């Protein structure tokens, strides 16, 4: 990821697909089983749109992890503005190098587990969950059994190994989780919340970096990704997985 890539994402609200209504819906599915003041770990938080939403929905203390300090600085500003800076604690760390001594009631990760792969995420992050703790994450999954060749080639070229939802649930069960629920992120979580702001920023940056091939290639790749999703969104998309760690699972 180069500086042009980061410049795009530093200037849009969300660093991945999502929307507040889906985050709220996922949280409400487990809310009654959480303590009054849960400890939440938000992994790959970006600028923290969902982090702020979690703070609004609960009295939680939230540890928000990201490896890009600019995103965390934006989250700090947003937390102060919303009045949650006493409960949101940004941590600058690589998700593979976290070393928390505490355990959490809930691990939350929207659109970030792909960085290490869902199998590794389930494996590595489990040690930070309390017995019977929850994990809520979104990742890219096949939604149908048919696989368009163009889309398959594109995902392979990006080195994305995409599971079906059923495959992911079986993997989670193998690793000591129970799947409480799952649902697909609606289309507006990609378009209104993610692609539209990104398109606007890219249009401005193309003017700023006119004649810069590396910048243009970066913007082209991002816009092609958007094009592929809009063309094939019936076949693949983000799914919320709502999981619970078994009591005796290590």
What does this structure look like?
There is one protein chain. By secondary structure, the chain is of the alpha/beta class. The chain has one domain (about 5-190, about 225-245): Vaccinia Virus protein VP39 (Rossmann fold, 3-Layer(aba) Sandwich). Helix content is about 40%, strand content about 25%. The chain is built from nine helices and eight strands. It has helices at about 5-10, 20-30, 50-55, 70-80, 120-125, 150-155, 165-175, 190-210, 215-230; strands spanning about 40-45, 60-65, 90, 105-110, 130-140, 165, 175-185, 235-245. Strands 1, 2, 3, 4, 5, 6, 7 and 8 form an eight-stranded mixed β-sheet that branches. Strand 2, helix 4 (about 70-80) and strand 3 (about 90) form a beta-alpha-beta unit. It starts with a helix and ends in a 5-residue tail after the last strand.
Q: Spans with pLDDT under 50 lasting ≥5 residues?
A: none
Which second-level CATH architecture applies? 3-Layer(aba) Sandwich
Top CATH class:
Alpha Beta
Query: Main sheet, how many strands, which sense, barrel?
Result: 8 strands, mixed
Q: Specify Rg, calculated over alpha carbons.
A: 18 Å
Secondary structural class: alpha/beta
Supply the number of helical segments.
9
Portion of residues within helices: 40-55%
Condensed summary:
By secondary structure, the chain is of the alpha/beta class.
What characteristics describe this protein?
single chain; 250 residues; 9 helices; 42% helix; globular
């Amino acid at each position: 990821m180069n500086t042009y890539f980061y410049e795009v994402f530093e200037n849009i609200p969300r660093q991945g697909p999502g929307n507040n209504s889906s985050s709220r819906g996922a949280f409400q599915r487990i809310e009654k089983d959480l303590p009054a003041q849960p400890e939440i770990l938000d992994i790959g938080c970006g600028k923290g749109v969902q982090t702020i939403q979690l703070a609004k929905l609960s009295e939680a203390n939230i540890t928000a992890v990201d490896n890009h300090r600019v995103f965390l600085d934006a989250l700090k500003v947003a937390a102060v503005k919303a009045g949650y800076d006493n409960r949101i604690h940004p941590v600058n760390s690589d998700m593979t190098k976290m070393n928390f001594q505490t355990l959490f009631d809930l691990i939350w990760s929207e659109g970030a587990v792909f960085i290490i792969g869902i199998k590794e995420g389930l494996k590595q992050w489990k040690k930070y969950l309390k017995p019977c703790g929850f994990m809520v994450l979104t990742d890219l999954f096949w939604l149908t059994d048919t696989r368009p060749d163009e889309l398959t080639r594109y995902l392979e070229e990006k080195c994305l190994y995409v599971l079906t939802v059923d495959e992911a649930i079986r993997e989670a069960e193998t690793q000591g989780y129970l799947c409480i629920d799952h649902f697909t992120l609606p289309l507006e979580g990609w378009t209104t919340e993610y692609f539209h702001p990104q398109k606007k920023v890219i249009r401005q940056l193309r003017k700023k970096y006119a004649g810069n091939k590396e910048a243009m290639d970066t913007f082209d790749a991002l816009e092609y990704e958007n094009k592929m999703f809009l063309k094939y969104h019936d076949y693949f998309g983000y799914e919320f997985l709502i999981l619970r760690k078994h009591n005796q699972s290590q």
